[in-house]
Design brief:
This protein starts with 5 loop residues before the first strand and ends in a 12-residue tail after the last helix. α2 (37-46) runs parallel beside α3 (63-73). The radius of gyration is 15 Å and the shape is globular. It has helices at residues 14-26, 37-46, 63-73, 88-96, 109-122; strands at residues 6-10, 30-34, 51-55, 79-83, 101-104. The longest helix has 14 residues, at 109-122. It has 134 residues and is α/β, with parallel strands linked by helices. The protein has a 5-stranded parallel sheet, sandwiched between helices. It has a single domain, classed as Response regulator (Rossmann fold). It has 5 helices and 5 strands; from the N terminus they run βαβαβαβαβα.
């Protein structure tokens, strides 16, 4: 489905990463994991991502800062928050910081898949140039 799409998962919670990575792979997404904002910034400089999932547990910054930095570091890649809080106020704070959406963990597979699809529809992967016969 989304075989050429690159997904960056930024979270220090390995179980959270594993759960969301399994869902993303079922959609055909290629995933890259990192556990800090510093590492995420380096990864973004190395390659483009169509989508970023950001946990609320980063050791080097708070969630609001992470969302702002990640949204400004990419060329339009939606940032989706992965949070341990299933809370309306936390959801609204994530959106006001620039997040595309919010997934409460542990992630519900169907809801997570729906959100990933919506985000990718907003930021599809670049099309490969087709070869034309001379």
């Amino acid at each position: 489905m989304f075989n050429s799409c690159q997904l960056l998962i930024v979270s220090s919670d390995s179980l959270q990463c594993q759960q969301t990575e399994e869902i993303a792979r079922r959609l055909g997404l290629q995933t890259v994991r990192c556990s800090s904002l510093t590492d995420a910034r380096s990864r973004i400089e190395e390659q483009p991502f169509q989508l970023i999932l950001c946990g609320d547990d980063l050791p080097d910054c708070n969630l609001r800062t992470a969302v702002r930095v990640l949204t400004s570091s990419t060329s339009g890649a939606p940032v989706i928050v992965l949070s341990h809080l299933a809370d309306w106020d936390a959801y609204m704070k994530a959106l006001s910081a620039g997040a595309f959406d919010y997934i409460a963990c542990p992630p519900d597979p169907a809801e997570t898949e729906r959100i990933l699809r919506l985000a990718l529809a907003q930021n599809p992967p670049p099309r490969r140039a087709s070869r034309t016969a001379a």
